[in-house]
Amino acid sequence: MKESIVVMGGGVVGLSCAFELQRRGHQVTVLEINRCGGQASGAAAGMLAPYSENVEGPDAFFQLCLESLRLYPEWQQNVKQASGQTFEYTNSGSLYIAYHEADLLALEGRLLWQGQYGSSGKIIEGDALFRLEPNLSRNVRAALHTPEESHVYAPHYVRALEQACRLMGVTIHENLDKLTIVEWQREILIQSTDQRMFSGDQLVVCSGAWAQELSDTFGIRIPVYPIRGQICAYEVDEKPVHHMVFGNQGYLVAKENSTLVCGASEDVAGFDTSVTDKGIERLRKWNKQAFPFLEDRTPFHRWAGLRPSTQDGLPLIGALSGSSRVVFAVGHYRNGILLSPATAMLAADCIEGKNTAAYNQAFSPERFGR
């Protein structure tokens, strides 16, 4: 049975859920308090790197991230086709660099389990490493090369998602200032500040760092907090960095628009999205350590976004046990771009009452109690 679905939040996760639900034949309305993609989504570096960003082991979160990476080739083609727009999607591969013997041992340990989950990665050292990245500092001892990892240009990707949704018939309301859930058990009724009322059969909550405001509404703890992520970019004439390059202090990724993006300096600053000299200077210090040619370069662009982080670092994805009308898809922290396809599929399956992989139980929106 096709349903009328209200998606609360127009970031990359909300737009992805709307896109997938509309593709499945539901009628979707997106409600956004600001502009679609205006917070963490548009500010992201767009890395699709589950092997590089999940270093502890193959837990449920890693498995969800890996599933999403594998969905991306077809997913991004579907978004481009539906929107009539293009955006950068580059299978650059990644290098996770190590300066010391202890760091190299950690990479070798990581490679052991990642190989069991589809990585064709290997440790690269010496001349072979510098052939891959000629501008890399000679102080780098080795790197874990993972060919499977990719990246997108986030602002264009989010813009294409929004256009795809609009062309497919999704109704999008922006600049609503504040939304109040009036009813969610018998039906979905949501009121905006200007007294407009929006209704539907089911609700998908994708309100990012603002989801914590709904704790009283649903009677559950929703410990989602904004983490400010600061990023900077350099203008480059050629492509001086060929892979996504990760280290324990940051990352660098070159884009097709002749920019080199570096991130991310993180701190707790509430909902403040201002950029600080201290945060950017920390990035610059790491940049020139990894790539000495950046020593005298000054970033031409600096920006920040709010990343919705949960208390345990895992997103909240799934239906409320007390009401099949409400599905959560929030708390993706720094992986919203990567997780957008897998989250959309999972949320749509929950809306339609389908069975999902057992590891998704780790993302229960009620796991923090009432």
TrEMBL record:
Sequence intervals crossing the membrane: none
Enzyme Commission (EC) number: 1.4.3.19
PROSITE patterns in UniProt: PROKAR_LIPOPROTEIN
Pfam families found in the cross-reference section: DAO (PF01266)
PANTHER family for this protein: GLYCINE OXIDASE, SARCOSINE DEHYDROGENASE-RELATED
Reactions the enzyme catalyzes: glycine + O2 + H2O = glyoxylate + H2O2 + NH4(+)
Biological process annotations from GO: thiamine biosynthetic process; thiamine diphosphate biosynthetic process
Pathways per UniProt: Cofactor biosynthesis; thiamine diphosphate biosynthesis
InterPro entries with a match to the protein in the record: FAD-dep_OxRdtase, FAD/NAD-bd_sf, Gly_oxidase_ThiO
Database matches in SUPFAM superfamilies: FAD-linked reductases, C-terminal domain, FAD/NAD(P)-binding domain
The name this protein goes by in its record: glycine oxidase
Record keywords: Oxidoreductase, Thiamine biosynthesis
UniProt keyword Oxidoreductase present: yes
Alphabetized GO MF terms: flavin adenine dinucleotide binding; glycine oxidase activity
Taxonomic lineage from the root: Bacteria, Bacillati, Bacillota, Bacilli, Bacillales
FAD dependent oxidoreductase domain: residues covered: 5-349
One GO cellular component term: cytoplasm
